[in-house]
Amino acid sequence: MTAPDRSTVAIVGLGAMGSGMARALLAAGLDVRGFDLSRTALDNLAALGGHPAGSVGDAAQGAAIFITVVVNARQTEDILFGPEGAAARLPPGAVIVSCATMAPDDARRLEARAREHGLLYIDAPMSGGTGRAATGELSFMASGHPDAFAKAEPALDAMAATLHRLGDEAGIGSAFKMVNQLLAGVHIAAACEAVALAARLGLDLQKVYDVIRVSAGNSWMFENRVPHILDADYAPRSAVDIFVKDLGIVTDMGRATCFPTPLAALAMQMFVMTSAAGMGRDDDASVARFLAGLAAVELPSAG
After folding, report:
1. Domain 175-295: CATH superfamily, name plus number
2. Catalytic: which of 151, 177, 207, 245?
3. 177 annotated active-site
């Protein structure tokens, strides 16, 4: 069988992150096929110069690099090994770049299944947000066999400003990502609590943002999420339910290794309560809305 063209990339999951990554891949001159359940997402890919596929299998056919940008391990497994999955259609030696945030054990299990199909696998969760996805400036926390990195190099170069190669086995990248998610979730929850408290105190929230942004209490999450609150814009860049999932993984890992994660557990409950209040699919800055609602505090409103 003829080896697949290394410039042929398939990407499944064309949501906020995946569509940006597809844009970066196309900008690098790669031939991109994509699939998503959303017709709008497929039309957007076509408008960028990519090739919409009719199914996961059609996207995978003949691709040298297959990128999954979905929510969790279950979705990744369905895409790869389900009845219409990619593994049966990818050519031998193709590389899977798995970007979902998942438990390290799940990443190791998926790598083993890929190996059974003669496929390479990179455990490659990423960080950076939708803006950096579109400009090819993501940070990847990746682990996998050196051969897999060599095969995926054209796509990784297009998508990443920083590629952390953290080991030769799947699961290492996911473990690093969970440490990141612990901090990210706690920082978002803390930023939302701080802004809601500032509102209770009657402070000018724009001035609170301007002052804290250049003070020791600042964090990347404060600087990134508080503008959503100031603009009353809760369209999901990263949804509340993402951190319900991710901090759930963190606390599960802590329990499995007999390691306490009290701050992660408390932050998780803040996201769970926000989700239970009907905001699970809204931007994760909605934690501030939940806290404001509890305390009958006014936050900025749209318009």
Report:
1. N-(1-d-carboxylethyl)-l-norvaline Dehydrogenase; domain 2 (1.10.1040.10)
2. 177
3. yes
